[in-house]
Prior knowledge:
single chain, 43% helix, 14 helices, 3-stranded antiparallel beta sheet, Cytochrome-c3 Hydrogenase, chain B, alpha+beta
Amino acid sequence: MINKFLGFKPDEKLLPSQTVTTDTVIDLSSHKYQKIWLGPNHPGVTGNMSVELTVQGNTIMKAKTHVGYLHRGFEKLIERRLFVQGFPTSIRMCVAEPDTNEYLIARSTEELSGYADAVPEYANWLRMLSLEMARLQGLLRGVPGQGGTFALGIGVQWGVYLRDLILDRFEELTGARVYHMYIIPGGVRGNLPEGFKKRMEENLVEIDEFIIRIKKLMFHNSVFKTRAVGLGIITPDMVDKYGIVGTNARACGVKRDVRKDNPYLYYDKLDFDPPTATEGDVYARTWVRWQELIQTVDLIRQIMDKMPETGDIRAKMPNVLNWKIAKGETYVRLESGRGEYGMYYVTDGSDKPRRINLRGPSYNHAIALFEDMLVGADVADVHAIMVSVQSCPPEIER
């Protein structure tokens, strides 16, 4: 059959093979391939990355992630500031879930200064509440956001509204909506406002209803199933090779969660079991995160039920403007919404940290893993795979 656009029938023997691997040799001068760029196209989250794609038709033959659009040297900025001045900078290293960095930097300074056991019990419960609220608002954007990559935009609108309700509670608790600076060395900045638990429960009831609606919208949807099942597969043997953590690992059957493996705060007093799947594709990762959405709502309820009604919110600390910490080093980690999230912290006896290094999962997920996952995929599925690995570019460009 003659192609009406070309005017002749192409010789299929001259076309490159559709069987493509990461080491496929690509000669652009042959005109059998084309190079296109995706992004950067948004001031936040995954849009800060650019992906250089080499395609043959709609098939991706090679992918290369480009970052650098956000780079502000966060780690070096913190190293040149007093210990307490590092907090406003640290939270910018992950816009999507900034409270994780608050805890890491606070806990690091506490361990190195000898105040690790001085944090009041009530303050630790408030820290855990803050961290789970951060996880919840991230899931409310992330779960329906995966549906948005398949044109299910109504779920994104639902999620944005409900996330705003949690941000209302953050504003009530901390005075800020996105960057809270609530967890500080020695404890937290404020107590629970009167009636906070009641208002939080009202929000959780609305989220319960959303969980049912988003299940019907996405997991009962033939378009979502057709597109997501079998797409972007992660296998168990890839987990250690690429350093995969969090829901990306749990969705292929590798059960890893710092809250369970190395409990911190009072997670060992909570009743939960991290959800898992075995398929390892986009559908499985989304399913695991949907289940984690249910679990996070339950964890917030458990925390509010088990925590003391009142107590001290911070330990007595030295003057933070004249605070020197003895020479030492530590590594503190937690389970963020994207997996293990750690901070290596070094002091030298001065009033500033000697070295700070963030171990975020996004570097492994968004560069090494993402580039290999795209090979052989369709151009139309790039955004779906990108969102499914849950990268956070500010965390890469720290």
